[in-house]
Amino acid sequence: MRVEDLDGDLEGVLISAQELQTRLKQMAAKVDADYADKDLLVVGVLKGAVMVVADFVRALSIPVQMDWMAVSSYGSSTKSSGVVRILKDLDTDLGGRHVLIVEDILDSGLTLSWLLRNLRSRGTASVEVLTLLRKPDAMRTEVDVRYLGFDIPNDFVVGYGLDYAEKYRNLDCVAKLSPKVYEH
């Protein structure tokens, strides 16, 4: 899906498709170096991180395993509720594993800080975070991010896996959603 296909739903592109791919390749090079001699498990956080994980792992030169977890603190709202629910748990035993959580966006930090505690409690060797986007002005709790794509303003954004009411995920860039779409 392209911006032109959305007939005024967007207020502007924040990060182009090319910028996304370039940054993911840069982060993959760092992960390659950091985990060259380790057995890495990439944990994608559904649904938003699907695009990020797919392009990120293809840019890696080291072999990795992947698993998926679905957690939610949004529902159909534009703001995090702070109450985390596991919708799909991992299929992989994490005992002794090096885990890299791959997220699409870090805003309040509440969901991700909960997820870090949860995964670390499972006997991992290490747990680190890669997030494509971070909203520093929205942070309500500190989260240590080892690999960061972009800091963005505290706007509601869609595209490249990010959605509003399950729409816009297939947009090839990250764009600001017009408030007229979600303010009723």
Features:
184 residues; alpha/beta; 6-stranded mixed β-sheet; 3-stranded antiparallel β-sheet; 4 helices; 30% strand
Overview of this protein structure:
The protein has helices at 17-34, 50-59, 110-120, 179-182; strands at residues 10-15, 40-46, 64-72, 85-88, 98-106, 126-134, 147-151, 157-158, 174-177. With 184 residues, it is α/β, with parallel strands linked by helices. Helix 1 packs across helix 2 (50-59). The protein is built from four helices and nine strands, in the order βαβαβββαββββα. The relative contact order is 0.21.
Question: In percent, how much strand structure appears in the residues?
Answer: 25-35%
Number of strands: 9
Identify low-pLDDT runs.
none
Mean residue pLDDT = 92
How many angstroms does the end-to-end distance come to? 25 Å
Report the sheet with the most strands, covering strand number, pairing sense and barrel closure. Answer: 6 strands, mixed
Measured as a percent range, the helix fraction is 10-25%
Overall body shape: globular
Tally of DSSP helical segments: 4
- Note the run of SSEs as H and E: EHEHEEEHEEEEH
